[in-house]
Amino acid sequence: MKFFVIATRDIDQEVDETLMDAEADHAALLYKNGFVREIYSRTDGKGAMLIAEAENEEEVMNQLSTLPFAKANLLTFQVYGAAPYRGFVRGI
Description:
The protein has 92 residues and is an alpha+beta fold. The chain has one domain (2-39, 54-89): Dimeric alpha+beta barrel (Alpha-Beta Plaits, 2-Layer Sandwich), CATH 3.30.70.1060. The chain is built from four helices and four strands; from the N terminus they run E-H-E-E-H-H-E-H. The chain has helices spanning 17-32, 57-64, 68-71, 86-89; strands at residues 2-9, 36-41, 47-53, 75-82. Strands 2-3-1-4 form a four-stranded antiparallel β-sheet. The longest helix has 16 residues, at 17-32. The protein is elongated.
């Protein structure tokens, strides 16, 4: 099942370059492993948006919790399950 995730970073806390690099590397690993299907930086500079593939929301949150920013309590997540659009399912 596909999930849309909006990740919001606590921009009030300073983040060192090492943690930024670790976050980018781990996001790339989640992409390589097939969990992250697409990922984008938010234009407001406050985090990222991604499309994930998982069995359920619990699996999504378990995977996201492995990110270094999440471990450092710098990220919060909004997770939305997605299903095929009704109009396309009807064959329009």
